[in-house]
Amino acid sequence: MTPLNILIGDDHRIVREGLKQVLADAPEIVVVAEAETGPDILAKVEALGGHAGLAAVLLDIALPGRDGMDVLQALKKAWPQLPVLMLSTYPEKQYAVRCLKLGAAGYLNKGAHPDDMIAAVRKVAAGGLYVSAVTAEALASAVGGSGGRSGAEALSHREHQVFRLLTAGKSVGEIGTQLGLASNTVSTYRLRILEKTGTKNDVELALYAERHAKTPAGV
After folding, report:
1. 86-103 as b/e: b if 16+ CB within 10 A
2. Segment 64-74, tens digit of pLDDT
3. Are 83 and 72 in contact (CB under 8 A)?
4. Rounded to whole angstroms, how far apart are CA atoms 112 and 87?
5. What's the pTM?
């Protein structure tokens, strides 16, 4: 049995330990490396030879130092053949389609059943695309919908990053530091986000994000 070497990129040790415990039930899946930050993930993937040494990368979206979706783009640029399975606590209908468009081989919520986690890793490591029922519905909506997208769906990739950080309670200065942007640039993105979501301030934006997360996919 050919081993499937996996790197886990997540800044929470308890999450990494939990993932390793789940994947231990699949004898062919071997976690050969772990990383806590975006730069560390990229460095370790390079040290392991990219797709030559890894079957897949399990990558969290919310990472310190560098956003997970930025890391995804960097990985796909350097090693386009390396499958990346995105893991997150964020709702699939908000993030899965964005991640797939950026080159991810799949998207899985961290609360998924262990059997689904193993199935997802096996699928992407084999070169396939792992799409859950929720993600499939979101994809169908994205493809079948009209060009006039609205709300969070109308946000650009960078706007969506700022949107996520704003609704997580980060200040304009903190967001600028994390994303490597000037504060006035972040403020400009914030104004665009408020306009596109029809909100007036950060409190309304946070409430919008909460409602959006609870809205059934396709609605």
Report:
1. bbbebbbbbbbbbbbebb
2. 777 898 999 99
3. no
4. 10
5. 0.74
